[in-house]
């Protein structure tokens, strides 16, 4: 089967959506399918076409940007060309281009499976408002052309303005999660590289430095945590410099982080082996997300596969990993006091939050997720 996956940003862009799509595409190739990813050349230095892990990646050039969206004049031509070759189309929302690509697919009689990652919620301002309204319209047009809409959880679907209107097409598939296998020696090397001392308590966060992640509330929680555990140190993994559209947010956080001194360290993006070692070293992972632009939190599951519990915000979808596994605490969004208390509770009683890491790995494995997509693709292509 030839599968076309379309999304605005693909790797090397770093976000939960792009990681999801990359894992799905790569695993579908391993299952014997041909996969083409149609995405944006969001950086001029990226090649127009390349093979990555057996996936054919095509990147039309970006002529201009509107908020976090991009305008690609040649994208419709690529979509028309590829539609003659593929068997099924998998679109990843939110993205504006999905609307006309979904209707091109219908024109060619190709099944459309739309993966809905999250509701779009842009910052205030006239340009952002226009982009937001346009995205809502395009999402509805895409839904009308879709045969199936996939999302991560019933919890998020029941609370989403978009998904509530499309329950008749909904299928629930948990996101694909994988963490590299590492040895004790790998973990020791990681600790040496990042100067983690024996007995030091590592509190982890993995995310782009973006306002919806609620980083300021973890910062605000740290003084109380440090009072109880003086060696506590946050290690922040993910892009924290030059994050598109988040420059003012980074400037706001800078003096707050500076006050924490040695208790806060930015690690940037880590290779797979170091990220796995990080999850093993961390005593707890914190996901203090604030709104519906976060729909699940794969990072929590990644940590749980290594036996590390999580503190997550009590918002739809994001609370699901902790609720399903018991590996952590759920706190009100935007509440530094509650975050501090949850971190301290987990550090005080770690055995109460261990859970079954092997069961988590099996449930969220990329192969398990890809096979569920495969079943939907086969169902739709046979009916077509």
Describe the structure.
The protein has about 375 residues and is α/β, with parallel strands linked by helices. The protein folds into 2 domains: about 1-175 and about 365-384, Glycogen Phosphorylase B (Rossmann fold), CATH 3.40.50.2000; about 185-365, 3-Layer(aba) Sandwich (Rossmann fold). It is about 40% helix and about 20% strand. The chain has helices spanning about 15-30, 75-85, 100-105, 125-145, 155-160, 185-195, 215-230, 245-260, 270-280, 300-305, 320-325, 335-350, 355-365, 365-384, and strands at about 1-5, 35-40, 50, 55-60, 65, 70, 90-95, 110-115, 150, 170, 200-205, 235, 265-270, 285, 310-315, 330. Strands 3-4-2-1-7-8-9-10 form an 8-stranded mixed β-sheet, with helices on both faces. Helix 5 links the parallel strand 9 and strand 10 (about 170). Helix 7 crosses helix 12. The longest helix has 20 residues, at about 125-145. The protein is globular and about 65 Å long. It starts with a strand and ends with a helix. The model has no long low-confidence stretch (mean pLDDT about 95).
């Amino acid at each position: 089967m030839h599968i076309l996956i379309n999304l605005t940003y693909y790797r090397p862009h770093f976000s939960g959506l792009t990681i999801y799509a990359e894992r799905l595409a790569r695993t579908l190739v391993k299952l014997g399918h041909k996969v083409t990813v149609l995405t944006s050349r969001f950086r001029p230095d990226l090649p127009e076409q390349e093979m990555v892990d057996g996936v054919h990646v095509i990147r039309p050039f970006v002529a201009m940007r509107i908020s976090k969206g991009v305008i690609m004049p040649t994208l419709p031509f690529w979509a028309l060309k590829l539609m003659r070759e593929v068997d099924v189309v998998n679109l990843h929302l939110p993205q504006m281009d999905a609307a006309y690509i979904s209707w091109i697919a219908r024109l060619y009689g190709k099944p459309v499976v739309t993966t809905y990652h999250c509701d779009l919620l842009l910052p205030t301002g006239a340009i952002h408002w226009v982009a937001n309204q346009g995205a809502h319209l395009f999402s509805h047009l895409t839904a009308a052309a879709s045969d199936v809409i996939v999302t991560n959880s019933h919890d998020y679907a029941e609370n989403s303005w978009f998904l509530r209107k499309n329950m008749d097409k909904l299928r629930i598939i948990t996101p694909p999660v994988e963490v590299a296998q590492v040895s004790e020696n790998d973990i020791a090397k990681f600790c040496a590289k990042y100067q983690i001392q024996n007995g030091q308590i590592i509190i982890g966060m993995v995310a782009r430095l973006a306002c919806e992640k609620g980083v300021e509330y973890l910062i605000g929680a740290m003084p109380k945590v440090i009072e109880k555990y003086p060696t506590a140190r946050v290690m922040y993994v993910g892009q924290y410099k030059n994050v598109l559209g988040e420059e003012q947010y980074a400037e706001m956080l800078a003096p707050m982080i500076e006050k924490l001194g040695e208790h806060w360290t930015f690690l940037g993006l880590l290779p797979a082996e170091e990220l796995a070692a990080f999850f093993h070293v961390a005593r707890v992972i914190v996901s203090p997300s604030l709104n519906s632009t976060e729909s699940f939190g794969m990072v929590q599951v990644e940590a749980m596969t290594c036996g590390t519990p999580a503190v997550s915000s009590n918002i739809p979808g994001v609370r699901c990993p902790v609720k399903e596994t018991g590996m952590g605490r759920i706190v009100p969004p935007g509440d530094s006091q509650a975050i501090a208390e949850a971190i301290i509770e987990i550090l005080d009683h770690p055995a109460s939050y261990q859970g079954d890491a092997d069961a988590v790995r099996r449930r969220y494995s990329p192969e398990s997720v890809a096979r569920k997509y495969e079943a939907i693709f086969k169902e739709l292509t046979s009916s077509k």
